[in-house]
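Handout, page 2. Input:
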Amino acid sequence: MVSGEKLAANARLRATLAAVAPGTKLREGLERVLRGRTGALVVLGYDKTVESLCTGGFVLDVEFSATGMRELAKMDGAIVCDRDGDRILLAGVHLMPDSGIATTEAGTRHRTAERVARQTGLPVISVSQSMNTIALYVGESRYILEHTASILSRANQALATLERYKLRLDEVTSTLSALEIEDLVTVRDVAAVLQRLEMVLRIATEIEDYVLELGTDGRLLSLQLDELVAGVEQERELVVRDYLPPGRRARSPEAVLADVDALSATDLLDIATVIRPLGVGGAESLDSAVSPRGYRLLAKVPRLPGTVVERLVDHFGTLQKLLAAGIDDLQAVDGVGDTRARSVREGLSRLAESSILERYV
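Output:
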């Protein structure tokens, strides 16, 4: 499982990427410096620690502007902005970080940037005059900003991959629905669906990083991503709730999903490993029969509140008993009147018919 410290570091890096994404004033300023080939060293944030590292320079405390950054970068010194990059606080500053801090960089500007980032915990940006690159230093992380065209190319490749995986996911979920109706589900079938759900979400997460880095240039990509992954997260939770073994020591769906999230890319390719966190067995149990509780199919019934779904599942226990229940049986559940009972009965009947037709026609 990913540690809290690593998650926090990733969140800081993502926040910095958002601050320098295309369309922001800060990115425009950095691009101007890059085109001018003067280089720059920019610290995002000012506190007592940063103050102790600063010598020389002068105080500005003016509103940030891209042209202002470009002109100030011509001087041989660092620029210190506020945390949000809205104001330029200092310019022409000589930074003196602790020389004992380890660094893998060779250039003076980059060595200073890495050490200041590690010592202060604040984001530091280094624009290389000779390499024509923009590097972000956030804590222990170093990230090179790429040109928009390169990011878009990789993002579109990832989106095409996501579309193929989503198509396969739709196929296996439809098969699972038909098998649930016929009460022919095996552990292997559940594992295949859970595996595909996780794969789709991981590809989507990668694309989300591209969208973040693209800023305003990633709006169309974001819309396509939202359309493709709509409901996938909920579907994954419902599958886990459907097949999680009951009992006093039963694990929570959140714990199971956390374990699935923690699987490596290699482990994710093995369905026996994917299904293990669910607690229904491993490789030796893949052909064992299992029965769903009915959460996933009930979620497809229109206008059925979550509280009513919980009561129906608690009352009947399995999907097969729900499918066999008549109007009077459904009305025996608290909160299910005549109208809602008919809606549930008709909704499940339509789902059963369409699932069987999709499988055999």
